[in-house]
Amino acid sequence: MAPQSEKSQLKRTRGSLPESDLDAKKPRRSERTSPEPNDKTPVSNKHQLPSPVTRESDSDEVYKEPTATPPEGRPSQVNHREKDDTSQALNNISSPPQDTQAFSQCPQETKDALSDEVEDEVKEGVWGYLFPLDTKYGKVVVMKKRAACPLPDTVNAAKESAGKEQKGKSTLQKEEEAYERTKIKGIASGGYLIGRHPECDIVVDDPIVSNRHCLIFSENKGGDNVAIVEDLSSNGTFVNEANVGRNKRRELQEQDEIAVIDKARFIFRYPKTRQSSAFLNQYTLLEKLGKGHFAEVFLCIEKSTGQRYAVKIFTKTAGMDERSKQEGLQQEIAVLMGVSHPNVLCLKDTFNERNAVYLVLELAPEGELFNFIVMKQKLSEDETRKLFKQLFQGIKYLHDRNIVHRDIKPENILMVDRDLHVKLADFGLAKIIGEESFTTTLCGTPSYVAPEILAEGRNRKYTKAVDIWSLGVVLYICLCGFPPFSDELYSKDFPFTLSQQIKSGRFDYPSPYWDSVGDPALDLIDSMLVVDPERRYTVDQCLNHPWMTQNQPGVNDSTDGLVGGIQGLDVHRRGVTRERTLLSSMNSVQVATRPPVGDSKKPVHIYAKNTKKMAPKEVDPHGQRNVSEFVEMGGKGDQPLFGADGESIYSKDDISGGKTKGGGK
143-147, 201-205, 383-387, 443-447 — which one is most confidently predicted on average? Predict the structure, then answer.
């Protein structure tokens, strides 16, 4: 319909253009659907960035691009490939097959699979195919469900290939680096990685491509198996030329095009037999193992194999917290799908269903390290050293991949067995940091957070060093049984709150709790609990510390090594006599051992914490006294516990025995 020539009857709004400038106004909706006059700025209805969901061609709505157009003067990171929009609309797909080379490499549709490498998609667990547009990346990548859960002693097994030529590195550091080299030819993670690092499934060797640029993995969603792409890069992963965004995900559609900047392009295809089923169809749910802020953890058994797993269930609820809970959950899935290390908990499968999300995780039968500390009160130096060898190696693996855990504490360290094999868990707050290598979110558990996290919003900027601080707090707790920073320390003589103690790094090693712990352990803690993150130890320095390696310091080591460190110890920190409350005094742990289930003969320990109220301190003599008693005593206060009348709490035999012994000297 042609635009009306008459003047509009609507009143002109205040501040509108004068009559002479009417041509510069934005066209009305009726005018946008008609041919444009030559004197007006043309409005293009051509879809330059196709959406994964095909839009109807006769829609009268203005098309909205899925991502913001780069500012003028800045070239696009992805060169646009011309597509036939008419063909695209007719075929109802995001990327037409006739403009790519990938489909010339595909087998005929009459076959049972899209690749000659696959005989049975269901039996082999195929959930997707990735067809490169450049043959230098191969013909096709067949993506299958794969187990990426290494055994506890896998790092130790790699030490034979560690080599002796690496000077200045401890055996522990060499072991971890040797293990990481095994990932180059092995399974790097449960998902499929694309990037510059040699361990990636598809290596794009270009300096502007990130080491681990993007991750593609599958999850069960509403009875269907869907593929997810997670952008791990800082310079762009594109789906149909729309930027996914760092640390964000996107569900892939059939024949979507994935671009790694403009250096590599791939077409994604789903298998012909795309099947899935609900969680309860594949697993049997058993006892509850634990409960967190947003999720509950249960024991479960895979029906087809009899294998035991832990399942973390996030119940979906409407409300303000739902979005943040979903973001944390998606972040945890992305981190766990992109890593594989014997000291990091392994994610087997995910189910995104109508009322809940299920994360099927590797089982740690002995539960949390927290329970172990409470039951033992504290750990020996040898036990703690074995524990921290694994924790440092696990954190080194994560930090080398620019992953910060951000919530390390004894509750998030799980024990596989009584031999102190442990795994880092609960990656809900983990973050994959970018090239700037810092993040600004306020998160963590108060007693374990680093000082820089407690800074004001504008000044809050922190790095991987926050994990070293948290590990330092855990190391302190393991060796003495109580935390270095606590509100119980607040007094007239020590007027510092928990936050002030952390920000200023105020802690000590009170007697008698630390009397039996050697100076090298204290030196390592001092090097980890440094307020300035620039001066705080890195994970490599922790692995090379003499307390970890148990190497005696050399003569030439007095400048930067242990000798210099011990000489620099604050004398007032050790030997201060102060009463502290052990975690075991404030918490109760009851253990119920479940009989063996599934294919394993080992029992699963289920812990019940704090079922009865624990008194934090011994009650003072007057704590339970009645007020009337003090009135009757005439305001004289508490009577002496033992009068000077010759009476004693000891028996006559004890007294006589003591006199006899004393007389014989």
Answer: 383-387
Q: Which of 486, 452, 488 is nearest to 467 (CA)?
A: 452
- Annotated active-site residue in 349, 407, 523, 526: 407
Q: What is the pLDDT of residue 21?
A: 47
Q: What 3 state SS string does 164-233 have?
A: CCCCCCCHHHHHHHHHHHHCCCCCCCCCEEEECCCCCCEECCCCCCCCCCEEEEEEEECCEEEEEEEECC
**CB 414, CB 479: distance < 8 Å:** no
Dihedral sign computed on CA atoms, order 584, 590, 593, 599: negative
What pLDDT digit, counting tens, does each position of 575-605 carry?
Answer: 667 777 777 777 766 666 665 665 565 777 7
Helix (H, G, I), strand (E, B) or coil at 441: coil
CB atoms within 10 A of CB 629: 11
In degrees, rounded to 5, the angle at the alpha carbon of residue 80 between the alpha carbons of residues 78 and 82 is 160
CB 489 within 8 A of CB 496: yes
Active site residue 407: yes
CB contact set of 157 (below 8 Å; sequence gap of 6+): none
Angle at 227 between CA 224 and CA 228, to 5 degrees: 125
Tokens for 23? 């041509």
Distances 549 to 400, 473, 520 between C-alpha atoms, Å: 21, 20, 11
Q: Kindly report the three-state secondary structure assignment for every residue of 458-502.
A: HHCCECCHHHHHHHHHHHHHHHHCCCCCCHHHCCCCCCCCHHHHH
Cα gap 244→252, rounded to integer Å: 11
Claim: this prediction has a pTM higher than 0.70? no
Instruction: Give the Cα separation of 479 and 525 in Å (integer).
Output: 11
Mean pLDDT of 168-187: 66
* CA distances (Å), origin 89, targets 83, 85, 94: 11, 6, 9
H or E segment to which residue 629 belongs: helix 627-632
60-64, 407-411, 583-587, range with the lowest pLDDT: 60-64
- For residues 172 and 393, the answer to whether their CB atoms sit within 8 Å is yes
Residue 158 has pLDDT above 70, yes or no: no
Which one, of 301, 289, 210, lies nearest residue 599 by Cα? 301
